[in-house]
């Protein structure tokens, strides 16, 4: 989490809400709106264009980067596996919808495209033989989050 905070510090970083990896287990457990709000409100996500969720899966990490205004979600898998992230799409989309609704109920207006969400992996063609492959994601993730791509 600290590495992600460092990546998103600096110009444009104020546009990114770094949500806890704990948010997806809360969604899976059907936690109430008050619980989701309590765990996300400190990020002031309703003021941010991009929400980032680190996801721990088995023995590695994935990252979901949600571009709210453009209605798109990018997934990064540190092992460049295609299948594991697909199992998280429903949870990420459910969390996104619930946070949008909770924010609206609290009087916060979030502007987002009223269209189908586009979801895509960012690492389908990265070689998994090099552990340094993941490091190439940080600059591209920052560019994605800051609206440069």
Automatic annotation (TrEMBL):
Q: Which family does it belong to?
A: Belongs to the peptidase C48 family.
Q: Domain named Ubiquitin-like protease family profile: which ranges?
A: 36-97
What would be an example GO MF term here? Answer: cysteine-type peptidase activity
Q: Which InterPro entries match?
A: Papain-like_cys_pep_sf, Peptidase_C48_C
**Any one Gene Ontology biological process term?**
proteolysis
Tell me which species this is from.
Postia placenta MAD-698-R-SB12
- Tell me the protein's name: Ubiquitin-like protease family profile domain-containing protein
Q: Which Pfam families match?
A: Peptidase_C48 (PF02902)
Q: Which UniProt keywords apply?
A: Hydrolase, Protease
